[in-house]
Amino acid sequence: MNAAASDITAILLAGARPVPDPLAVAAGVAVKPLVPVAGEPMINRPARALLAHPAVGRLVVLTQAPELFAADPATAWLAEHPEVRFERSGGGIASSLIALLDRGDLPFPLLMTTADHVLLDGSMLDQMVREASGADIAVAMVERRTLLARYPGSRRTWLKFRDGWWSGANIFWFGSGKARPVIALWQEVEQDRKKGWKIVSAFGPLTLLGAVLRIATLRGGIARVGRRFGIVARLVAMEKAEACIDADKVDDVMLIEGILADAAE
User: Fold this and answer.
1) What per-residue confidence (pLDDT) applies to 195?
2) What is the pLDDT confidence band of residue 192, given thresholds at 50, 70 and 90?
3) pLDDT per position as a tens digit, 216-229
4) Using CA atoms, how far apart are residues 168 and 142, in angstroms rounded to an integer?
5) What is the pLDDT of residue 200?
6) Coil, strand, or helix at residue 21?
7) Which of 165, 116, 142, 138 is closest to 12 using CA atoms?
8) pLDDT in tens, 139-177
9) Buried b (16+ CB within 10 A) or exposed e, 38-73
10) In whole angstroms, what is the distance from residue 215 CA to residue 235 CA?
11) Rounded distance between C-alpha atoms, residue 183 and residue 52, angstroms
12) Which of 206, 213, 209 has the alpha carbon at shortest distance from 236?
């Protein structure tokens, strides 16, 4: 690994969408990150994975309602943890991230993921840190054959390129302040939902640009888009199929709980 020990600032997205989340409604909780998966709120597992990784020095939980996590006995440990701080998010991921960057008190590199990334583990973080280190921005993706070889019944959203069909793994790397212009573009698209906000939220700004520009291969395309911005940009093709399985739907939760049960045996 190139990143120094305890050098990374991890950002865990734990916000709520403008409309009620079906999983949260069904579980009777205020926000999706509090939905129980395998017996505990889903946010706990990715939070523990990040805090346990030797390259992560601090964890920022970005949410509109920090008080909900402090008040829940199952997540109160996050509010009390010395390496965790809560920050109140705004209406969008990119705008909230830019607001944090503009304050200037978050040291790079930043590694961002989501509270529904329940299967996040040390080996995924190892690969992301190893392959993203040195880049100004990197996005983790899973190629369809990797997923279907292990979970043939799993259904994802795919983007087609010459080098495969790709699905987002919800792990993003911002290695330096040079990434800010790309995040600003992300913010612009996020604010205009007619311009493909669903794709941006799932795959990130570099992948969206690659799709819009009809770049032939995702690997080379992301690097080329980075060069247009004067930055080093990379695709991290995740080795583990589980990297793109998040707790977004009831079927996902059932699959995740089965995976965790098998791992515990």
Assistant:
1) 46
2) low
3) 678 887 887 788 78
4) 6
5) 46
6) coil
7) 116
8) 999 999 999 999 998 888 888 888 889 999 999 999 999
9) beebbbbbbbbbbbebbbbbbbbbbbebbebbeebe
10) 14
11) 27
12) 206
Asked whether 206 and 172 are in contact (CB, 8 A), the reply is no
Q: Are 155 and 114 in contact (CB under 8 A)?
A: no
Say whether 112 sits in a helix, a strand or coil. strand
CA distance 169 to 51: 19
The CATH class, in words, for 8-264 is: alpha beta
**pLDDT of 194 higher than 50:** no
| CB of 65 closer than 8 Å to CB of 31 | yes
Considering only residues 30 and 201, tell me which one the structure prediction assigns the higher pLDDT: 30
What Å distances lie between residue 249 and 6, 169, 252, 256, CA to CA? Answer: 34, 16, 5, 11
Rg value, the chain, Cα: 17
- Is the pLDDT reported for residue 249 higher than 70? yes
Burial of 170 (0-12, 13-18, 19+ CB in 10 A): buried
Which range has highest mean pLDDT (13-17, 159-163, 213-217, 238-242)? 238-242
H helical segments located in the chain:
22-27, 44-52, 66-71, 76-80, 93-103, 122-132, 144-150, 180-191, 197-203, 205-212, 218-228, 250-264
